[in-house]
Amino acid sequence: MTQTDTVEEAATGQVDEVQEAQSGTVEEAAxxxAVVVPVEPRRRRTWWIPVLAVGIALAGSTGTYLGAGxxxxxxxxxxxxxxxxxxxEAADAxxxxxxxxxxATAAAAxxxxxAGVVVAGLGSADLATELGEASQEAAxxxxxxxxxxxxxxxxxxxxxxxxxxTSILEMLATRARAADVAEERERxxxxxxxxxxxxxxxxxxxxxxxxxxxxxxAEALAGNQHATYESRIEVQHGIDQxxxxxxxxxxxVGAYTALAAALDxxxxxxxxxxxxxxxxxxxxxxxxxxxxxxxxxxxNLDFRWAHVVNGLxxxxxxxxxxxxxxTDGGWATIELSHSIGWHWGEDVNAKAVVVHEVGxxxxxxPECEPLYSGPVFNGDDEMWATAWAIASGYDVPGSGIExxxxxxxxxxxxxxxxx
Length: 419
Hints:
Blueprint: H1 3-22, E1 30-31, E2 34-35, H2 48-62, H3 68-115, H4 125-144, H5 164-222, H6 229-240, H7 253-278, H8 282-295, E3 300-306, E4 308-309, E5 312-313, E6 320-325, E7 331-337, H9 338-342, H10 348-361, H11 369-373, H12 381-391, H13 401-404, H14 409-416
Parallel strand pairs: 3-7
Antiparallel strand pairs: 1-2, 4-5, 6-7
Helix pairs in contact: 3-4, 3-5, 4-5, 5-6, 5-7, 6-7, 8-10, 10-12, 12-14
């Protein structure tokens, strides 16, 4: 018997035993001397899975990061590092949202306040409508925008003994939170941009409307030349939004109402001046005022007339006062007694009083102020005005000599440099 025959017999015998044990039929197939037997196969065991599981358990329980435990730890830390910039971007977006809400709230309030006090004729009606609409849109958006809802930070296990599965769970939680942060950050950033745009629109509408109001005011200013300079400069302050006494925030409702009030005062002044010029005495007063302006070298002068001036009655005295200001190009308000008008054509002293008051106003001129404040006069108002009147050709008691005494020749010569 050959070796092959022996193997074949042994194999055949095994098949018979299997057939008897299973009480079934067996098909044989011999290929190149081999026998295939349908017996129950053995399962191959993956030996490293239970070993790895035990290893992870051992690594976690001992606090070391060898093997799979180390991998889990590194993946967790990588996830934490990756989400840190995202948290910063989200925090920036929240800051932008809060700033945008503050700006939009203020712009809406400022615009609505101005839209609520619009005066007919002071500013464009169309721009006033746009102002109201832009302000309302900003206010509505502030109400509609939701507060930020960023997920709470994860409290990580930073103990020295941390099982691998803890790191894996924290890694998964970090990634899930990162997705939520990214989504909320995008929403918050979009809302912040919308609020900033609404604030700009309301602000731009308010500025545009105020500019249209200044154009209206400039037109009114040009049409009211006979109003007092005092009333006109207040309108100019409102147009320029600067000047002596102007304390309003630029393009604000306060600025608009101040401009409107200044215009009302200027119109009232123009009406009063029209009535004054219609009165009989203006035939004389107007000529006196023109005479004074002809001596003033361009200094703006307002005039008032009264029966009692500086405590002196027109029944007994010629009297005058001058209140000068260095601001707004230099100007003065001169008050004269009616007695000056009564005797204008017959008494040179009446003229001399007017020249004296014009002399007071000359100190606002840049070329004259150093003479007035210098060592010759040392800021003596009455000696200056008297000397200026004398140097102007009015060497009479009414120039101020009777009231204040005669200036020195040096003072008269010094004042003469300002004529």
